[in-house]
Amino acid sequence: MALDIINLTKKFGDQVALNDVNISINKNEIIGLLGPNGAGKSTLMKSIVGALKIDEGQILLDQKDITTHDIESKKKIGFLPENNPLYQEMFVKEYLQFVANIHGIKKNRVDEVIELVGITPEKSKKISQLSKGYKQRVGLAQAILHQPDLLILDEPTNGLDPNQIVEIRNVIKEIGKEKTVILSTHIMQEVEALCSRVILIHKGNIIQDSPISEFKGKYESLEQAFQSYTEAKQ
Ligand SMILES: Nc1ncnc2c1ncn2[C@@H]1O[C@H](COP(=O)(O)OP(=O)(O)OP(=O)(O)O)[C@@H](O)[C@H]1O
What we know:
About 35% of the residues lie in helices and about 25% in strands. It is of the alpha/beta class. Helix 3 packs across helix 4.
């Protein structure tokens, strides 16, 4: 899987949410997308999955432009959006079968994914009745059902209890062995636990893109590094 983001600019009215962004990913790794509130992380993720129309630049997935190879690209990408929108009135397995039908994939893959994300005891419940952590797992399940090469996760552990955080991280880690994962988070521990590479975005600009050790550099912690890089650019 190769993802190339070339000179990407996205504006909302006069506001530049992404400013001439360039990113290249050529191997399977888990990448942490960091940045203060409003930095442009969700905008970048939505642009990559084709949910937002970009103003300038190109996004290439395996050398093909995602706008002109829309369906082909969507087959290769899984997305867990921020706030995890789900059909609350549907039952867990029913919902996942519905998503599987959209992708045109076999029914037994649904059971496989239910097992993988650890929601077997919850599969007959209505989504509205699930705890936040289980809803998050359902969101993750829909994102990986079609076995995408690239998985985009917008704050995947947001609002989960410590046990659920560890469990979801384990699932992501497993997936990251074979696929490329880009996840956004405000939790530096999460970055340390999962990511090999860090991309730091601030006010729509990429200000760091490096292996985690390089990102940490001379600083004692990732928090300190994050603070220093973003404060210096206020
Ligand atoms: N649909 C929209 N219309 C107008 N402005 C928007 C829209 N979506 C995002 N923005 C603006 O673009 C900027 C980047 O927002 P974005 O949601 O990408 O930030 P983020 O890094 O994901 O922030 P957070 O960490 O708070 O989730 C913000 O200033 C935001 O207000």
